[in-house]
Amino acid sequence: MVAPSQKNLRSYGRQTDLKGNSMLLNRREWLRSATAGLALNLAGLTAMAQREASHGIKAIAFDAFPIFDPRPIFALAEELFPGKGGPLSEAWRSRQFEYAWLRVMAERYADFWQVTEDALIYAAKALKVDLTTEHRERLMQAYLKLPPWLDVVSALRTLEEGGFRLAFLSNFTPRMLEANIRNARLDGLFKHSLSTDAIRSYKPAPRAYRMATEAFGLKREEILFVAFAGWDAAGARAFGYKTFWVNRLKLPAEELGETADGTGDGLHDLVTYLST
Asked: Closest by alpha carbon to 150, among 272, 268, 13, 18?
């Protein structure tokens, strides 16, 4: 099990200079979103149905971050701590996953909200950042207000109309999932919102991935898992899922002995993968 490097916040989803500039849409992003929207056509849906019939994919389970954009958290960190938001975010995210995995290994489980807050407190202390109660609350609440990536809504509707059953399979707590689904106005698109908190563990534990087979009542090979992090793609593939890695940051694959079945830098590529 390889924890993210403290120097590599990119594996978490940062595509920003942490000064808010990342929140501005550039022409390429807009065109990509529009291209994803064009997938909503009869030919695309027919192609998906044909692929499902030949490859057996009946349901798709998503990690949270292919859907929700975490960049506002980083922008807020820089707003609160000018010049220090980047290092704080990197240390925070790295420790967040280390704490999750270490607690499982030590059999001292705490849910993802708790480890996220604990990691933030540690990161602030390590970097000698004056994290007030107000700062901590604002940064934590940002985890409940994540917007969807630009290509999400059109892609999900295409997949739903293509006959695929959709679910979340995330380390987020139920509260985090529910709040972000409401915030992104994605109510009704997902048949299941599966939080690993229900089994008091975290991905990439095999029993965490097993939650989707049990919820859908399907075999492993009938489910496509969509990951944001390379380690999650590897973990799902090792479990036996077909996997698609939404590699928005164009990172190399993790050296964990497994390779995703498909990869792309957005959900428009997932739609294309399922249509060809």
From this structure: 268
